[in-house]
Amino acid sequence: MADRTTHGATDDGALSIQGERARDASAPLLMDLGEVDNYVDGVSDEVLACRERGRHIFPSIREAGMVFVDVTEDGLLVRPLLCTCCRLARRVELWDIVGRGRATRYVPVTASIEYLRGPNGERYLGPQGRGRMTPKMVRNSLASRVMDGQSPAAVRKQAKQRARHQP
User: Directed axis angle between helix 135-147 and helix 33-42, to 10°?
Assistant: First the structure.
């Protein structure tokens, strides 16, 4: 029988569909907040910017051009791009050539991201086996670090003063 203290229980104690899904053992677990704090303390600002944003910044075709570095066994062209922010994520695109003559088109087929190690061993990904880290968790950790030592009452008072002085 389902544990009625589980998140997602309805008024009659039965689990909702979302509650049942939340209990699914195959669902990825979230990283412990203390481990997120440790991760945030140990990586560069550039990695935190990508983590907080929840995505990498890869150069556009106009910025990077169309430079292919290899050809797969299937004849697809390999185009790697490095994240311009953290420099620890490489997007590897596979392109195909379709048509002939004036109607030749270069068409993206697939793309994947590879995570690299930095020169000092820095990693974009959190430690394996510790759960998933969301952008919101990273933002919460960063905000808590920035606001550490400040009284919540003083922060509210400053916010109200700033609101009064805005046009």
Answer: 70
